[in-house]
# Entry
Amino acid sequence: MRPLLLAPALILAACATETPAPPPAPEAAVERPISWRDLLDRPREAADVRIAYGEGEHQYGELWLPDASRHGDGPFPLVIMVHGGCWRAEIPGTILQDQLNADLRARGIAVWNITYPRVGHETGGYPGTFRSVAMAVDEARDIAREHPVDLTRTAIMGHSAGGHLALWAAARGQLGLGIVDGVASEPFIPGAAITLAGINDLEAYHARGPGRCGEPEIVDQLIDSLRRATADPYADTSPAAMLPLGVEQVVISGALDPIVPPALGMAYAAQAEIAGDAVTVITLEEAGHFELIDPTAPAWEVILAELERVLD
# Structure
């Protein structure tokens, strides 16, 4: 596991001799983490094509393809993008990632930006959310037959609740059919998984989450823990309970995140490393929750470097 990345200012401060502390900044000058509404207030580009991977209203994705006149004919590396939103139907979905998708497309990276039924949708929760994510990821094979994407250079990346689902999708090789009956018996497993402020351990989030997503109730609703006839409803739904995943993982958190505190990401990464997975863990000192999906934020340069590394 790589050492925790600290902001240069913090490293210098730790090495310096004692000096008088500067006066606190005026309230108006203090930088505040952005919200998802800040992202939606910005102009957004459009995907190249919308593709249904199933017959349900929320079973589709949007494919973003690099411009051939600038980047050649491909095939292009592919990011499977999984949006967050606390697994809740009332929170926006794929549009939360549009700025990232446009940035990646401009860099010559294709994006398959998927959505899925969530709690509040007719087929949301267990097993519909999970089955739909499995179907969407497997759709990458069909996409590669029709579009210039390179399945040998593929990563799955998710934010918040999408980080949970990205890791879950990467862990499908550990499952029998069960939850995903009717989906491909040989699942498509991307080469690496990147979780941005991901809810990687459902049991820990149920017990110690700060309540900003509606936990613990939303976790119970997602995995149907109160009605399922199983001793452990996390066993096939929570990445932490499915370790080792068998794929390289990058766990990135924002130190100022009030929704998924970085301690949760660090604890998951430690478990994954003990289980034998290759894990990089990064905490970005000046980032909150949504800076991790803002390509204008300093956090994006760190995230992009990790993404390009695992796609190489």
Q: What stands out?
A: Confidence is low (pLDDT under 50) at residues 1-30. The chain has one domain: 35-311. DSSP finds ten helices and eight strands in the chain. The two ends are 19 Å apart (CA to CA).
